Amino acid sequence: MINRCQWIEGKPDYYVDYHDNIWGKPEHDDTALFRWLILEMFHIGLSWQLVLSKQEQFDSAFDNFDYRKIATYDEQKIEALLDDKGIIRHRGKIQATITNAQAFMKIQAQYGSFDAFIWSFTAGKTIIKQQDIHQTKSELSDCVTKALKKNGFKFIGSVTVYSYLQAIGIVNDHDINCQFR
Ligand SMILES: [Zn+2]
């Protein structure tokens, strides 16, 4: 029998795949780091399951999250995205995706990579949960949010950033007896 986090029980395969292979695992690729940040932003006000179910459509609509391309999206492209039923059609979030791609590249220019910037908050270490408590934000996510906002990122708050830190493995919140911990 496979021991997984309790909350994953009854979830569809793509969600289990996310739990087993992504959640809590250190990510160091800048494109993937950008992708999860944007998907977490689209998550705001909606279920994560919905966002995960639309991953492939998001990848194709947003040029596989090539931030260099996204940084140059114009009004015509925004309109096309707003017409795309495969993704979450929210003008504010789509506009923030473009703004955040530009901010992302500024951070890369300043720190060498977004990876270097985002992992500097924990000196490259993953914070592993020590007891089974449910948390939606932390001092760390407050601190990272503040830094992201200072660098021009839009449409993000501490809860979104906490969820992001879990996705990219800076925070590992798997249950104590989950074998994917
Ligand atoms: Zn788990």
Description:
This protein has 181 residues and is mostly helical. The chain has a single domain, classed as Hypothetical protein, domain 2 (Endonuclease III, domain 1, Orthogonal Bundle). Helices cover 54% and strands 2% of the residues. It is built from ten helices and two strands, in the order H-H-H-H-H-H-H-H-E-H-H-E. It has helices at residues 13-21, 30-43, 48-53, 55-61, 67-70, 75-82, 91-111, 114-119, 139-150, 158-167, and strands at 127-128, 171-172. A two-stranded parallel sheet has the order 1-2. Helix 2 packs antiparallel against helix 7 (91-111), helix 2 (30-43) crosses helix 10 (158-167) and helix 9 crosses helix 10. The longest helix has 21 residues, at 91-111. It is globular, with a radius of gyration of 16 Å. The model has no long low-confidence stretch (mean pLDDT 97). The structure holds zinc ion (ZN). Zinc ion binds next to loops.
- The helix/strand series, from N terminus to C terminus, equals HHHHHHHHEHHE
Note the main sheet: 2 strands, parallel
Molecular shape: globular
CATH topology: Endonuclease III, domain 1
Per CATH, the class reads Mainly Alpha
Instruction: Going across the biggest sheet, name each strand in turn.
Output: 1-2
Task: Tell me the radius of gyration.
Answer: 16 Å
In whole angstroms, the N-to-C terminal distance is: 16 Å
* Number of helices, where a helix is a run of at least 4 consecutive DSSP H or I residues: 10
Helix content: 40-55%
Regions with little confidence, pLDDT below 50 for 5+ residues: none
The share of residues in extended strands comes to: under 5%
Mean pLDDT across the residues is 97
Number of strands: 2
CATH superfamily: Hypothetical protein, domain 2
Hetero compounds: zinc ion
Domains (count): 1
Structural category is mainly alpha
